[in-house]
Amino acid sequence: MRKDFFYIIAFLFALIILRIFFFEIYTINQNSMNNTYKAGNKVLIIKNFYSITYNDVIIFKHENKKMIKRCIGLPGNTFKIIKGKTYLDNVLIPLPSNAVDKKNSESDAFSRSEIYSTYGKNEWTLYNFGAFLIPKKGMVIALNPKNIILYKKLIEEENVDDLNLTKERYIFQDDFYFLMGDNRAESVDSRFFGPVKKADITGKVILKVW
After folding, report:
1. I need a surface site. Which of 44, 76, 184, 207 has the fewest CB within 10 A?
2. Among candidates 110, 99, 118, 126, which has minimal Cα distance to 32?
3. Are 167 and 194 in contact (CB under 8 A)?
4. pLDDT, tens digit, for every residue of 106-154?
5. How far apart (Å, rounded) are the C-alpha atoms in residues 175 and 196?
6. Where are the domains of the chain?
7. What's phi and psi for 45, nearest 5 deg?
8. Which superfamily does CATH assign the domain made up of 2-137+174-208 to?
């Protein structure tokens, strides 16, 4: 009897450790991943000891809330959209099989305003965007008017100290990932708020539970 009790306690302890440090159930509360995942679906995420590759679906923090998107670009990749088609390092990348690609008007004031706020580019839209070099840790950029307008927001997010910022260059302190929702026309993602740094990524989806 005492032995059974010990096993039960050990099992419960193991479950608690797994829940705290390794796995979590995330409930999707947005429509940006339609039709791959829909609001109300639950997914299992791994929180530690994982790598991020192209096409992974990840969970991250943005403005104090968790969001779910697909990794479209890795650190050091060049991302662009031409007439609604996405390219990575000048290679056309296909839409996910269940993605929604219905287009909104090119003149959508909200999207243009948000893209301009982040990247400082009047001509960039949801369907014609970039080219944009995704920062990686250790990447050096010249601090000239062209680069500052593209990377100003990311530099500010890194809370840079005087050792890394000079009058001529900036050295990025973290890897960044370009994330997009599968519901391309209705997803607020890296096209709006910029690439997401690795420190803000909290997990990777490994299984759809329901």
Report:
1. 207
2. 99
3. no
4. 557 889 999 999 999 999 999 999 999 999 999 999 989 889 999 999 9
5. 8
6. 2-137+174-208
7. -120, 150
8. Umud Fragment, subunit A (2.10.109.10)
